[in-house]
């Protein structure tokens, strides 16, 4: 993604590029098992997902691919979809893969991160050729329940063997109903970052360990002239808004839903309710928090010295400490997520094989297996693509072997305290998922936005969040 390199390290979930394909609201409603008239009250259960996929399958992948039939006699063609981060590097990795697999050719399509879920739902419904795709834990349950993506261990003997080679939170994020559906494109945490020089100049000897201390230190810095010590990434269209919220809740030792998939934030003393109240109070009552619409904007703002604290994807620390682009490089540091347990949200973004690929037969299935193993798995004792992302771009990874790779450690040491990073990784965990989680998050974002804008109270926001969740749950489960 060559257009967004101004801050040094690109966002692997970036919306910087224009959207190539945006699905219609009608397609979205079909995917959810809803209609414009009935909305979320319509029953949205597994049959609704599977029926949409099965109905679209009438067209048939072979029919859609007919113009390429002649080429398929000589090689296997794969269609690969990604969100538009560093598409140039992805294409170069594809070129390397094709060089050692001359019987496989890969066509790349990239789409905007904020609309990636909608775009993929549209592609699956319309049976637009798609064999391999990026995915994440927030959408896996939905896509798997719909029958759009398939588990790897149903088709490849090697898939289950990676469990001991992948970080536990990443493996959990790639698993649905006991089956693993992917291998990591990258895996990371959402962490707490701060400007150590600002704290030192203010006589603050250690970063905040609790959210009360975040408040206290922010108020001190505000009293000394800093208008907004805490800068927070928020916009309605970013899928990671709910993920950042989850990470802060985890720091308090909490969870968003229980094992029966009931929302926990309805309890006003729950970690989730307390954290949402903290955000709203920090913005509207204390005036210590300001909002910016994207991490690249925050990175630039942090480099002006106007803000001391933020919570973002961990790779942003590499951007903040990149001397080539950051005026204050070297001043930024990781702190364990504030809270009673210091846990944080850990996740994986990964490669999925689609049902469309399976429908095309063994030749395509085998080609997808070769592709996923090269891009995410072990090749001659190495993890070439994951290591490249880590060393060149500062991206996290799920492959545990890279934790001890000398080149990776050397690269990461330039921008993060590696020992503290390892400690935070040990405390990272994936969140509980639900088929409707990704859909619910799209209603959570504007509700949080209203609360941060002071249009509704924190309590009203929490109740509306629960109403939306419970309505979706009832639509799926009956």
List keywords for this structure.
disordered N terminus; D-Maltodextrin-Binding Protein, domain 2; about 475 residues; alpha/beta; 21 helices; two-stranded antiparallel sheet; 9-stranded mixed beta sheet
What does it look like?
The chain is an alpha/beta fold and 478 residues long. The chain has two domains: 2-188 and 347-416, D-Maltodextrin-Binding Protein, domain 2, CATH 3.40.190.10; 189-345 and 430-477, 3-Layer(aba) Sandwich (D-Maltodextrin-Binding Protein, domain 2). The protein is 44% helix and 15% strand. The chain contains 21 helices and 13 strands. It has helices at residues 25-32, 46-56, 61-64, 69-72, 87-100, 116-126, 137-145, 168-173, 196-201, 211-223, 240-251, 271-284, 295-302, 316-320, 355-359, 362-376, 384-393, 406-413, 418-426, 437-452, 458-477; strands at residues 76-83, 104-111, 132-136, 149-150, 175-176, 179-180, 182-195, 230-233, 289-292, 309-313, 332-335, 344-354, 428-429. The strands form three sheets. Strands 1, 2, 3, 4, 7, 10, 11, 12 and 13 form a nine-stranded mixed sheet that branches. Strand 1, helix 5 (87-100) and strand 2 form a beta-alpha-beta unit. Helix 17 packs parallel to helix 18. It is globular and about 70 Å long.
SSE layout:
Blueprint: H1 25-32, H2 46-56, H3 61-64, H4 69-72, E1 76-83, H5 87-100, E2 104-111, H6 116-126, E3 132-136, H7 137-145, E4 149-150, H8 168-173, E5 175-176, E6 179-180, E7 182-195, H9 196-201, H10 211-223, E8 230-233, H11 240-251, H12 271-284, E9 289-292, H13 295-302, E10 309-313, H14 316-320, E11 332-335, E12 344-354, H15 355-359, H16 362-376, H17 384-393, H18 406-413, H19 418-426, E13 428-429, H20 437-452, H21 458-477
Parallel strand pairs: 1-2, 1-3, 8-9, 12-13
Antiparallel strand pairs: 3-12, 4-12, 5-6, 7-10, 7-11, 7-12
Helix pairs in contact: 1-6, 11-12, 17-18, 20-21
């Amino acid at each position: 993604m060559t257009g967004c390199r101004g801050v040094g390290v690109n966002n692997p979930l970036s919306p910087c590029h224009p959207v190539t394909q945006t699905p219609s609201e009608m397609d979205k409603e079909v995917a959810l098992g809803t209609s414009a008239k009935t909305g979320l009250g319509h029953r949205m259960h597994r049959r609704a997902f599977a029926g949409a996929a099965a109905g679209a399958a009438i067209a048939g992948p072979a029919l859609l691919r007919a113009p390429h039939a002649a080429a398929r006699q000589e090689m296997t063609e794969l269609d690969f979809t990604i969100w538009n981060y560093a598409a140039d590097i992805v294409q170069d990795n594809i070129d390397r893969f094709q060089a050692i697999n001359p019987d496989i050719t890969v066509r790349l399509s990239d789409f905007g991160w904020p609309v990636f879920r909608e775009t993929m739902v549209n592609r699956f419904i319309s049976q637009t050729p798609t064999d391999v795709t990026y995915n994440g834990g927030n959408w896996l349950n939905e896509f798997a329940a719909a029958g759009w993506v398939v588990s790897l261990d149903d088709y490849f003997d090697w898939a289950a063997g990676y469990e001991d080679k992948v970080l536990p939170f990443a493996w959990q994020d790639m698993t649905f109903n006991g089956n693993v559906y992917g291998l990591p494109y990258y895996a990371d945490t959402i962490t707490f970052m701060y400007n150590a020089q600002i704290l030192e100049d203010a006589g603050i000897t250690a970063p905040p360990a609790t959210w009360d201390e975040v408040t206290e230190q922010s108020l001190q810095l505000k009293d000394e002239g800093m208008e907004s010590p805490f800068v927070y990434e928020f916009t309605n269209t970013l899928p990671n808004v709910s993920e950042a919220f989850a990470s802060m809740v985890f720091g308090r030792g909490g969870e968003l839903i229980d094992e029966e998939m009931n929302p926990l934030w309805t309890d006003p003393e729950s970690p989730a309710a307390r954290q949402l109240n903290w955000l709203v109070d920090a913005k509207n009552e204390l005036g210590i928090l300001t909002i910016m619409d994207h991490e690249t904007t925050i990175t630039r703002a942090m480099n002006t010295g106007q803000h001391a604290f933020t919570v973002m994807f961990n790779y942003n620390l590499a951007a903040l400490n990149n001397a080539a682009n950051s005026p204050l490089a070297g001043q930024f540091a990781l702190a364990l997520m504030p809270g009673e347990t210091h846990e944080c949200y850990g996740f994986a973004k990964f490669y999925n094989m689609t049902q469309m690929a399976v429908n095309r037969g063994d030749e395509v299935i085998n080609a997808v297996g070769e592709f996923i193993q090269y891009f995410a798995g072990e090749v001659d004792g190495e993890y070439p693509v994951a290591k490249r992302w880590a060393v060149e771009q500062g991206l996290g990874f799920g492959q545990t072997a890279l934790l001890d790779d000398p080149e990776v450690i050397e690269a990461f040491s330039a921008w993060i305290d590696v020992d503290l990073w390892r400690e935070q990784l040990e405390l990272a965990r994936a969140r509980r998922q639900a088929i409707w989680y990704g859909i619910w998050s799209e209603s959570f974002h504007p509700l949080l936005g209203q609360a941060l804008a002071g249009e509704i109270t924190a309590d009203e926001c929490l109740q509306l969040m629960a109403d939306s969740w419970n309505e979706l749950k009832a639509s799926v489960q009956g």
